[in-house]
Amino acid sequence: MWSLLLVPVRTLAAAFWTNWRLLIVLLGQAASRELQEIQSDPFRLAWNEADSCTSNMLEMTESKYKKLTVNHTRALCAYSKKTPSLYKPLNVALRQSSALYSTPAFPFHTIYFWLTSAIQILKTSCETTYRRTDLTFNGKLHQVIRFGQFASSSRNPNLDFGRQTCFQIRTCLGAFISEYSNFKHEQEVLIPPYEKFKIIKILLEMKNCFRIFVLESVGSHTKLNCKVANRNQQIRASIPLIIGFQLIIGFIWKVFSNTAI
């Protein structure tokens, strides 16, 4: 989950990242699209395999995180499983398919919604986390960047997922999800694709890493020109839409799970 390349921030006009409040609109008006996503691999496989994890996590954390729904918990469990892999195709799509995001061709609207929504609920305050990779990133001092995907980081600086490029990250939008992860020892803090960071320091040829980028959170991309009924209007989500979307997904999933072979 760590070995993915950091990508530069694009201009606001080119960025499609949104917070979960805006995304609700996109999802709530596309029930047929969600049905297709639920039935497709790898979403269906990962979603089904997360059953036991979801039940266990709900029992363990019910009193602590009352705002998390079953689908929030299932999404976190499905994302953190290595087999079947959901995080790999999801993050590849997020990095490479931004132009398709507001169209039915993008296959992961549902899981993106539940993950970003869960992160919004679970995040508390800013904290320092760490990320390692064997890939090379040639960022420049004072450059503003984002990961462009769901980026796993850890409170533990000594997890060895690579020594080519390392990051010391001050995140203010990421959330500690270790209690919902299949790998609790990793002390994972999940950073959303839309959080922006400024490179405030670059350390070279350190003992345990060839290059260390020190990142400071500088906010997020939260605007999206929603291309649903009216492609030129920006639509804002409301509480009824949130409730309506949850009911739609719950109903679709119940029907599909009862009829699947």
Automatic annotation (TrEMBL):
Cross-referenced InterPro entries: ADP-ribosyltransferase_ARG, ART
Q: Does the keyword Cytoplasm apply?
A: no
EC number of this enzyme: 2.4.2.31
Q: Which reactions appear under catalytic activity for this entry?
A: L-arginyl-[protein] + NAD(+) = N(omega)-(ADP-D-ribosyl)-L-arginyl-[protein] + nicotinamide + H(+)
According to the UniProt entry, where is the signal peptide? none
Q: Does the keyword Glycosyltransferase apply?
A: yes
Gene3D superfamilies, per this entry?
Answer: Toxin ADP-ribosyltransferase, Chain A, domain 1
Top-rank lineage group of the source organism: Eukaryota
Q: Name one GO molecular function term.
A: NAD+-protein-arginine ADP-ribosyltransferase activity
Which keywords fit this entry according to its UniProt record? Glycosyltransferase, NAD, NADP, Nucleotidyltransferase, Transferase
Write down the Pfam families for this protein, in alphabetical order.
ART
Q: Which PANTHER family match?
A: ADP-RIBOSYLTRANSFERASE (PTHR10339), NAD(P)(+)--ARGININE ADP-RIBOSYLTRANSFERASE (PTHR10339:SF29)
Which family does the entry's similarity section mention? Belongs to the Arg-specific ADP-ribosyltransferase family.
The protein's name: NAD(P)(+)--arginine ADP-ribosyltransferase
